[in-house]
């Protein structure tokens, strides 16, 4: 094991120790422990979560957090942010469009595909549950792609 791995494991072990001590304090006064467990479990388990993330980040190297279309995606220090653009290309493919298309064309493609693949229209055709599930996934992908493209284009205009 290298030094980073050992340091990461030590940090996680410290987090476990502090978590046990913190739970002892909270549940030493039973009322406070139960109230925290019911209403704020994030506070109750904060030491473990904090030191776990810290230990893992030491072991794996620094990580960046990037929020895109409502989802959180992580990129390591060694990766380039060109992955975001590749992802946007995937969204254009999902909507059967290209990055040079006007937003009106993309919107028309989105509406046509939603009408074709929306799970309510599939369900009305009395198809199997598997087909309905696939339609739900396709609808979700279409919605995500359209919102991501719309968001990216509005940011590029600013």
Question: How would you describe this protein?
Answer:
With 158 residues, the protein is mainly alpha-helical. The protein folds into two domains: 59 residues; 76 residues, Helix Hairpins (Orthogonal Bundle). The chain is 74% helix and 8% strand. Strands 1-2 form a two-stranded antiparallel ribbon. Strand 1 and strand 2 form a beta hairpin. Helix 1 packs antiparallel against helix 4. The radius of gyration is 23 Å and the shape is elongated.
How are the secondary structure elements laid out?
Blueprint (H helix, E strand, L loop, with lengths): L2 H26 L1 H10 L1 H4 L1 H15 L2 E6 L2 E6 L5 H13 L8 H15 L1 H5 L5 H29 L1
Antiparallel strand pairs: 1-2
Helix pairs in contact: 1-2, 1-4, 5-8, 6-8
Name its key features.
mainly alpha, 158 residues, 2 strands, Helix Hairpins, 8% strand
What is the helix/strand order? HHHHEEHHHH
Please identify the top-level CATH class of the largest domain.
Mainly Alpha
Distance between the termini: 48 Å
Number of strands: 2
Total domains? 2
What's the alpha carbon Rg, rounded to whole Å? 23 Å
SS summary, helix count: 8
Fraction in beta strands:
5-15%
Classify the fold: give the CATH topology of the largest domain: Helix Hairpins
CATH architecture identity of the largest domain: Orthogonal Bundle
Overall pLDDT score? 77
